[in-house]
Amino acid sequence: MASASASASARARPASTAPILDTRQDDESPISQLTRHWINERHAPDILPAQEDLLASLLDHIRRQSDAVQLLRGEPSASEEEHIRIMLVQMEVERVKFIVRSYVRTRLFKIEKFARFIMTDTTIQTRITTAERAHASRHAHLTDRHFHTSVLQSLPETQSHLDDTPIFMPPMITKPDDSRAVFVHALRNCPPIRFHEDLTLEMKRGHISLMPFSFIEQLLVRGDVELL
């Protein structure tokens, strides 16, 4: 009977050799990919394409790993080695959660900053998720209503619009500044970058340069370069 009970307990407990969290350090691991997208998003002046599938995959992975940890923590016969392993996994899960939260917060900051521009530009709408577009719409609506209630309703009709483009004045709708300079690191050999007819730059793998974001945006989307 004791042997049968021990066998049943062994079957119920997750095998200690099963990988709890993928901690590979190569560039193909989901964690490494999200880390790179997070850094790129932080340094890019524009909103980059959303990594919805990657984010969903990592969140599902975190949920499954957390469930596995809870099972191991509730196992009274777990060894000291397994307890240490559980602690390491929990630390790694918290690290991934931090990256996920920071990535999402960075995108939300940009979406709220450029909310009114997002609602008028179809190109940038293709880079955001359905939920992000809904958030931008709500934020733009609330901002417009606040401005109208507090200021615009007291102004003459000709001066009460938020989409005016006055001459010699900055536009009233904030939009991304693609001319802002960024530091770029080439992950592989890139095609020549043409600044104008007499000036081109060939970025080899490992090369670091400072240039306007607009010239390397497509290279960044393809994964040929990363921002620093």
Automatic annotation (TrEMBL):
Region (Disordered): 1-26
Record-level GO cellular component terms: GINS complex
Span of domain GINS subunit: 82-145
Subcellular locations according to the entry: Nucleus
GO biological process terms, semicolon-separated: DNA-templated DNA replication; double-strand break repair via break-induced replication
InterPro entries per UniProt: GINS_A, GINS_bundle-like_dom_sf, GINS_Sld5, SLD5_C, Sld5_GINS_A
Domain of life: Eukaryota
DNA repair in keyword set: no
UniProt key word Nucleus: yes
UniProt-listed Pfam families: Sld5 (PF05916), SLD5_C (PF16922)
Domain named DNA replication complex GINS protein SLD5 C-terminal: residues: 176-228
Key words, A-Z: DNA replication, Nucleus
UniProt feature, compositional bias: Low complexity: 1-19
Family: Belongs to the GINS4/SLD5 family.
Function: The GINS complex plays an essential role in the initiation of DNA replication.
Protein name: DNA replication complex GINS protein SLD5
Annotated source species: Lentinula lateritia
